[in-house]
Every structure is written in structure tokens, then in C-alpha cells.
Amino acid sequence: MSLRKKSASAGLKVWTVAELGVFYTEHRNELVAHASRILKDSARAEEVVQDALIKVMLAAPELESTDHARGYMHRTIENLLSTSSAWRVVGQVWFSLTITQQS
Whole domain around residue 97: which residue ranges? Predict the structure, then answer.
């Protein structure tokens, strides 16, 4: 699996798994800090960042630069958090309604 990025020439360059690993290693702390600020839970933040990396790999967007890849990861983290937060709220409401109906 690979991600494409534009090289200096007109053609597209493929991000190898090794290059993606280097990118992740270099930016992991920054990405986890971003998720931690929102979640207030470092363990869950680690999971979200890993999920975001998998989504980026599966989507295989054409990332033109490391900065573009970082921005894409930050946006993916925010999207994952907003989706999981919305589902958590829906689950809490459903649970509350279930408890209320049983009483």
C-alpha cells in the first residue's frame, strides 16, 4: 500500500510504507497532542491517531507534500473525534431513554 505525492518533476511519486512510517514517527507526538487537547485522554488520543493513519493509508489521497499530509492527518483526527463524539452522545441519550422507560 502506498500514498502518492508529487515529486519535483511533473510525475507523481508514490509514498512507500517506509516513507509513511518516517512521516508518522516524525509527527506522531504533534498529532497525539492535537487529539489529547480535544479528548483530554492520552490513551484514547493514541488510538485516534492510529485510526487516522489507517484512514489516510486506505484513502490514498494524493498528498503533495509533508505539510499537506500533516494537514490531512489533523483534519482526519478532527473528523474521527467529531464522529465518535456524536455517536457517544447518541449512545448516552439512548441509554438514558432506556433507563427512563424501564423505571
Answer: 3-102
Please, are residues 38 and 94 in contact by the beta-carbon 8 Å criterion?
no
Element (H, E) at 13: strand 12-15
Of the CA atoms within 13 Å of residue 17, those in its CB half-sphere come to: 3
How many domains in the chain?
A: 1
d(CA 45, CA 80): 11
pTM for the full model? 0.67
Question: All 3 cell numbers of residue 79?
Answer: 473528523
pLDDT at 94 (0 to 100): 45
Q: Which three cell numbers stand for residue 98?
A: 432506556
5 sits in which H/E element: strand 3-6
Sign of CA dihedral 58, 61, 66, 68: negative
